[in-house]
Amino acid sequence: MAFATASLPVFAQTASPQNPGIDAALLAKANAGDPGAQVLVGESYAAGKDVAQDLKQAAEWYRKAADKGDVGGELHLAALYRDGGKGLSRDMELAAVWYRKAAEQGDAGAQATLGLLYSLGQGLPKSDVEAYFWLDLAASVKGPKQERYADNRQLIGTHITTDELEEVQERVAQWQAAHPRRADPK
């Protein structure tokens, strides 16, 4: 039977000595290696709801899920490093690494963010060509943010040459052929 993260109680009536506010069943699943449960435990620590807020602990749980290729874990970890906060240093290079992992799995939001990071040179070398590539991939996914991604792509497109545009379009076509995907629900 598949584990459905939406049906789990995220926070707690049942507590454990190590994690006083996290549901024991959820924690057991997380400790057993379930990436969805690991993300939910990370969210508990990140939000500081029913447990003390601890961004380092949240990052550890997100990393466990991310190391298994879980897009949710990768995105949460990227956001933690992007923003930093109580006890966790901001690290745009690490944020870019985790956004790239999610982007390479086809997450349109991560692709758009990676494109913006390239356009600004934050955590990555500034590259309008790479920015256009990732924004074009994001803009090709039907969803509520598709138009915003397309607008950003077009803005970046004014900074690249016709030859660069042709090369990027060829790369996009190759990527899309190798990575069929569904519409982005975000």
Question: How would you describe this structure to a colleague?
Answer:
The chain contains nine helices and no strands. It has two domains: 14-90, Tetratricopeptide repeat domain (Serine Threonine Protein Phosphatase 5, Tetratricopeptide repeat, Alpha Horseshoe), CATH 1.25.40; 107-179, no CATH class. With 186 residues, the chain is mostly helical. Residues 1-16 have low confidence and may be disordered. Helix 5 packs across helix 6 and helix 7 (128-139) crosses helix 9. It is elongated.
Main traits of this protein?
186 residues; mainly alpha; Serine Threonine Protein Phosphatase 5, Tetratricopeptide repeat; 2 domains; 9 helices; 61% helix
Number of strands: 0
List the total number of helices.
9
Q: Helix share of residues?
A: 55-70%
Give the name of the CATH superfamily of the largest domain: Tetratricopeptide repeat domain
| Termini separation | 26 Å
At the fold tier of CATH, the topology name of the largest domain is: Serine Threonine Protein Phosphatase 5, Tetratricopeptide repeat
By CATH reckoning, the class of the largest domain would read Mainly Alpha
Could you say which structural class the secondary elements and strand pairing correspond to? mainly alpha
